[in-house]
Amino acid sequence: MGGDILSVQELKIQLDSVALFGLTKDYRAFILLPKSKKGYSGVGLYVRLPKPDDPPQVCQALTVVKAEEGITGRLKDSTKGVRYCDLPLSESIGGYIQGNELHEIGITEQELLSLDSEGRCSMVELANNTVVFSLYCPANSMGTADGQVFRLNFLEMMFRRSEKLRQRGKKVIVMGDINVSPDLIDSAESINELIKTKVIHNNLHEGGRDFERRNEDICLSFRSSTPHRSIFHRFVVPTLHAASRCPTQFLFRHHESFATAKARIVHSLEYDDECTSVQLWL
């Protein structure tokens, strides 16, 4: 496969297919399939086995010391029969959302367990104090009220847990599909509708940088135009250079002034052109 750590989503296989298609001799595989809806969703996280000639720091970065299924810690460790969040601190990845924080979010223990029923998160902790998430966040493609609640709860738990792990001194990498278009420039459907209704100026032929500058107010308001987008921007600073009147920043400035801006970075983000595959360093 070539990479050191790989994340795959939407496996859509059943347990009996894992041994045939999901394993490879050069990688440790951490695969989670849905508890219900067999053959639906599913994620995998592959960590390359260190080679004898790898430098010590590379070996450390590829050595898995803990692994966990799910985003909430409410699933049980298959070898110990105890929920991850109930394990001793030395045996768990940590950062679990509990107590008053659950009350603040307004989510029940049963809803937490439901979040992990669809095979959407596998995670590991590496020997270099890094936690890696492999995610397939829900998109609520059917547009239902229950689906929207599920989606928002999943995002809230993912970002909050990542932040708690970071506060504990761990480095956090989120890999996979977050299923959120953070900025207007990432949403062709929204742009086309706004052009059709003449709400924005169509200067896309000049490039994304000039498009966002010409339509700055609309681009800024888009960031909080949906609940899932608001959650995303509450936790993530997606670029390096601050835009005026906004605590976050425009994507088109991502590569400008890195030397002067990097001290202000809270989180950094990379994603593909459609913003479907995300790696988030916290």
TrEMBL record:
<keyword id="KW-0464">Manganese</keyword>
<dbReference type="Pfam" id="PF03372">
    <property type="entry name" value="Exo_endo_phos"/>
</dbReference>
<keyword id="KW-0460">Magnesium</keyword>
<dbReference type="GO" id="GO:0046872">
    <property type="term" value="F:metal ion binding"/>
</dbReference>
<feature type="binding site">
    <location>
        <position position="177"/>
    </location>
    <ligand>
        <name>Mg(2+)</name>
    </ligand>
</feature>
<dbReference type="GO" id="GO:0005634">
    <property type="term" value="C:nucleus"/>
</dbReference>
<protein>
    <recommendedName>
        <fullName>Endonuclease/exonuclease/phosphatase domain-containing protein</fullName>
    </recommendedName>
</protein>
<dbReference type="GO" id="GO:0008311">
    <property type="term" value="F:double-stranded DNA 3'-5' DNA exonuclease activity"/>
</dbReference>
<feature type="site" description="Transition state stabilizer">
    <location>
        <position position="179"/>
    </location>
</feature>
<dbReference type="InterPro" id="IPR004808">
    <property type="entry name" value="AP_endonuc_1"/>
</dbReference>
<keyword id="KW-0479">Metal-binding</keyword>
<dbReference type="InterPro" id="IPR036691">
    <property type="entry name" value="Endo/exonu/phosph_ase_sf"/>
</dbReference>
<feature type="domain" description="Endonuclease/exonuclease/phosphatase">
    <location>
        <begin position="4"/>
        <end position="187"/>
    </location>
</feature>
<comment type="similarity">
    <text>Belongs to the DNA repair enzymes AP/ExoA family.</text>
</comment>
<dbReference type="InterPro" id="IPR005135">
    <property type="entry name" value="Endo/exonuclease/phosphatase"/>
</dbReference>
<feature type="binding site">
    <location>
        <position position="179"/>
    </location>
    <ligand>
        <name>Mg(2+)</name>
    </ligand>
</feature>
<dbReference type="GO" id="GO:0003906">
    <property type="term" value="F:DNA-(apurinic or apyrimidinic site) endonuclease activity"/>
</dbReference>
<dbReference type="GO" id="GO:0006284">
    <property type="term" value="P:base-excision repair"/>
</dbReference>
<dbReference type="GO" id="GO:0008081">
    <property type="term" value="F:phosphoric diester hydrolase activity"/>
</dbReference>
<keyword id="KW-0378">Hydrolase</keyword>
<feature type="binding site">
    <location>
        <position position="10"/>
    </location>
    <ligand>
        <name>Mg(2+)</name>
    </ligand>
</feature>
